Amino acid sequence: MKVTVDFEECLKDSPRFRATIEEVEGDVCELESKLDKLVKLCIGMIDAGKAYNAANKQFVNGIRELAQQSPKDEVMESSLTKFAESLQEMINYHTILFDQAQRSIKSQLQTFMKEDLRKFKESKKQFDKVSEEKEAALAKNAQAPRNKQHEVEEATNILTATRKCFRHIVLDYVLQINVLQSKRRSEILKSMLSFMYAHLTFFHQGYDLFSELQPLMKQLGGQLDQLVVDAAKEKRDMEMKHSTIQQKAALQDFSNDDTKLEYNVDADNGIAMEGYLFKRASNAFKTWNRRWFSIQNNQLVYQKKFKDQPTVVVEDLRLCTVKHCEDIERRFCFEVVSPTKSCMMQADSEKLRQAWIKAVQNSIATAFREKGEDAEKLDRKSSTSTGSLDSSSEPKEKSLKGDSALQQVQAIPGNGSCCDCGLADPRWASINLGITLCIECSGIHRSLGVHFSKVRSLTLDTWEPELLKLMCELGNGVINQIYEARQEELGVRKPQPGDPRQEIEAYIRAKYVDKKFVRMPTVAEQRSKVIALSKQEKRLSSSSEHLPPRPPPPTPNLRPVSNISAAAGWEEARRESLFCPDELDSLFSYFDNSSKLRSIKSADSGIQNSADGSREMLAATPSTNSLCEAEPSESTLPVFLPKSDSTVFSEPKEYSPGLQLFWASYARSLPDMAEALAHGAEVNWVNTEDDNKTPLIMAVQGGSLVTCEFLLQNSANVNQQDIHGRGPLHHATILGHTGQVCLFLKRGASQNAVDVDEKSPLSIAVEAANADIVTLLRLAKMNEEMREAEGPYGQTGDETYQDIFRDFSQMASNDPDKLNRFQPYDAQKL
After folding, report:
1. 608: which strand partners?
2. What distance in Å separates the CA atoms of residue 325 and residue 332, rounded to the nearest whole number?
């Protein structure tokens, strides 16, 4: 025990002792003040902690109530319940922590203050008293006269007794001081150490608790991306449904037809007709009440609220009849009569009354015919011949979705695992790179931005055939050979499944954004690559894409040729159109009736034409200036004649990735195109030495639909023109590539653009007598005008128009021979 006041010094009662005593007393006074403050702060902390626990407990109860509110969502209910239990356990740990703070800080320090400091104060009082007595005794002894012996003896005796008492008291006081000085350290440190151990236990318990919870949290975190995708898909579906309903409602308002939203067929629950009707009660007052009626399961029933048990009006429709009621004051009334009773009902309009009467009659007939089976659906949507572009009986092929797309893409070597981390069974893809990804890497790719990577689900999204073929043409192996060419050379480790997200994200950014692992070619290597591509013969893609014969790439001259065989060739091409005359009539009539456009101004010719003029355009030979002229003479039939039969490669002034992309697009080599983009090629690069043509125009001349799709997915400009003012749509029309025309129209290619000869794609298709392309261009034009006329309700496009273009896309990808009937005429044969 360290002695702060010397015992020997206290007996001397020296000034040094007095100074030490004064210093110790001041220190103890300050200690008492700070301990008192600390105890009060501890009490405030404990009170605040209890309030926090109470509020936290209410919050946890709110989480439990939210979990109970989602009984049908197993993931949400179980996760929230587990989280609430964990948070409740943390509240219990907090309670224990605050109890320990009360015991270790408040109780122990208060005990120290009440006992040890109190003893010190009592000893100080005795010391102060005896010190005063000693001083008085010394003064009296000094004042005693020498000649008065009895006073001297008395003063001496008092001084002796007082000194003896002082020595006893001062020794006790010094002992108390030294004990207090030593004990203050142990008591304070013991109290704080106990409090810190309570904190240590609290955090250990919390760590153990959340360590057990971590697998669930990690699993839920992995599911969140999928949940976000599902929510986005549901939102998109709801928005599409909302737009469709708005469009139907607008058409209903326009035609004053109030039966479309009331009259429906639902085969799943057997409802043939349902809607609101007024029903006359059978009471004495004959009141009319509005009820929800339905014809289902061979019965006529109604209900007031959804949860109410339906009231049966007619048990068996085979036993009843329905008739108009014109002898009462109310309008639009009809009566259903059965052998036991009759029911008077009122519709909201005459059309609705007729619909209900017809529905009841048809249900009666169906009940008799099927002998009590469920009634057939009454409001079947008529399917016109516009939905089929092929006169054969083959069913239409729809866009691939789900497992079909997943199986085809994963069948490509290397696509069975994630391109970036190697996780097996990837369900996501980057469509502009042509690679497959796991869900974690797909989230990182989304964060890069669509100018680097466009992510799509292989199981949830719908895949167009040309996009699916693009995925099968490239793949993880091809792209990794390009983007990871220098990975091992640089000594960079490729991420593995389960690595921290930060490491995977850093690797992906270095790979695709910074392109650190791409091996940049030398000028000689680039020159060799460009020359090899320019001399490359016709090449088929690895996905067995059946491509039409590649037409000559130079820009064709447009000049009329006088020859009977030309007219005969045009008639033959017209007759081979995918559309039969009846289908064309139905198509254009459909667009006329849907859009309510009775007069359409042709943007290509500047002459006003009716919809019938569009049909005449395909039934008669048009001239170069009008789409609805009379039959042309043999001397005025124009054809397209190419300038030459082959591409001439001239040595460029300099070699660049853009030039490689230019010739790779013509050679249909997607790996070389992807390599050029990785080397920094501009997707809209312009070849100033070759009529300002772009890679997309060369892809058109190469004849491959997939190369066009690849460039468009990588942000190629679908309307960029060459030196002759012709864009990709012009070139595809000139070369008769129907599939490419369909693709460009879907991607927003402008039909109104004209070349230096003031010719639009439509006028070129008319002169070339390509009935399929003419039809596509006219339908796209009519759909655009219909959307403009309908305002905001026409933004999603017409369903029939979309079906037609979907079918053309299927044929262009899966059966291109059907679209490859048009060939440019040879001048030497005419």
Report:
1. 601
2. 8
Torsion (CA) 462, 464, 470, 472 in degrees, nearest 10: 60
Which tokens in the block code for residue 25? Answer: 């007393």
**Total structural domains within the chain:** 4
For residues 253 and 790, is the Cβ–Cβ distance under 8 A?
Answer: no
Buried b (16+ CB within 10 A) or exposed e, 459-471: eebebbbbbbbbb
Q: How many CA atoms lie within 13 A of 305 on its CB side?
A: 2
CA angle 267, 271, 277 (to 5 degrees): 155
User: Is residue 549 assigned to a domain?
Assistant: no
- From the list 86, 62, 63, the residue with the least C-alpha distance to 76 is 63
Residue 779: how many CA atoms within 13 Å on its side-chain side?
A: 31
What residues contact 283, with CB distance under 8 A and at least 6 apart?
A: none
Instruction: Output the six-digit token pair for 17.
Output: 């002792």
Lowest mean pLDDT among 359-368, 447-456, 496-505: 359-368
Residues 301 and 182 in one domain: no
Q: How far is CA 527 from the centre of its chain?
A: 43
Mean pLDDT calculated for residue range 306-328: 82
- Check: CB of residue 658 under 8 Å from CB of residue 676: yes
Q: For residues 22 and 177, is the Cβ–Cβ distance under 8 A? A: no
> ∠ CA 275-276-280 to the nearest 5 degrees?
135
State how beta strands 299-303 and 288-296 pair: antiparallel
pLDDT at 817: 59
Two structure tokens written together for 128: 């102060």
**Residues 343 and 437 placed together within one structural domain of the fold:** no
The residue range of the domain holding 416 is 400-519
Residue that is last in its domain, among 519, 537, 568: 519
| Residues 109, 170 share a domain | yes
Within a domain: 823: yes
SS3 content of the chain, % helix, strand, coil (to 5): 55, 10, 35
- The answer to whether residues 727 and 735 touch, using CB atoms and an 8 Å cutoff, is no
How is 605-654 classified by DSSP, letter by letter?
Answer: T--EE-HHHHHHHHHS---SS-SS--PPPGGG-EEEE-S-SS------SS
Q: Do 31 and 177 share a domain, yes or no? A: yes
Please report, rounded to a whole number, the percentage of residues in the chain having pLDDT higher than 90. 22
Cα 454 to Cα 347, 406, 417, 424, 440, distances in angstroms: 52, 17, 18, 21, 15
Q: Report the SS3 class of residue 295.
A: strand
Is the separation of the CB atoms in 173 and 126 below 8 Å?
yes
Q: Distance between CA atoms of 170 and 162, rounded to whole angstroms?
A: 12
Number of neighbouring beta carbons within 10 Å of residue 581: 11
Query: Which of 127-131, 327-331, 356-360, 415-419 bottoms out in mean pLDDT, i.e. has the lowest?
Result: 127-131
Helices then strands, counting H and E runs in the chain, come out as: 26, 16
C-beta separation of 667 from 698 below 8 A? no
Dig out the tokens for 79 from the structure.
Answer: 């996760």
d(CA 675, CA 667): 14
Q: Give the separation between CA 484 and CA 196, rounded to whole angstroms.
A: 53
Half-sphere exposure of 409 (CA within 13 A, CB side): 36
How far, in Å, CA of 198 to CA of 268, rounded? 63
Is 776 within the bounds of a domain? yes
